[in-house]
Amino acid sequence: MSTVSIDHIAIPTANAERLLEFYKRLGFAINDEAEWRAGQANIFSIQVGESKINVHPEGYTAFLRGPTAVPGSADICFVWNGTAAECQQWLAEAGVEVIHGPGPRKGARARGVLPAESLYARDPDDNLLEWMVYL
Asked: Are strands 29-31 and 75-80 parallel, antiparallel or unpaired?
């Protein structure tokens, strides 16, 4: 198979400033923020390893996007490089409430056979966020 990874996903937001503050508080790098603020870019993105999440700010319209995309419709799973306890502490220190977990989950690595556990939270748009911790 020649498809090898995900380059990016895109999510709409109801409040770009609030979403930026949330992901910055978690330590994510933001791409094109200055250009977006200067009106030179229509979107900005959240860098996640070698992939990114493109953010479509409120009022953004484009032909090439999901026709029913609305804020809060995403379900994103990140991989945490550490223990579930460390992830839980990091989220708490950032003021992010864990709504479920840690608990056992099947991730994508090794086609779902590696043991893992996850913690769940929500971002300001109510997107479901998961942190997968491989054991």
From this structure: unpaired
The active-site residue, picked from 35, 97, 117, 130, is 130
Q: Which ranges in 3-43 belong to alpha helices (H)?
A: 16-25, 33-37
Architecture of domain 1-61: Roll (3.10)
Q: Say how far apart CA 50 and CA 33 lie, in whole Å.
A: 18
Largest CA distance in the chain: 46
Contact 9, 76 (CB under 8 A): yes
21 catalytically annotated: no
With residue 104 as reference, give the H or E element that holds it.
strand 100-106
CATH topology of domain 72-135: 2,3-Dihydroxybiphenyl 1,2-Dioxygenase; domain 1 (3.10.180)
> pLDDT digit string (tens) for 108-126?
999 999 999 999 999 999 9
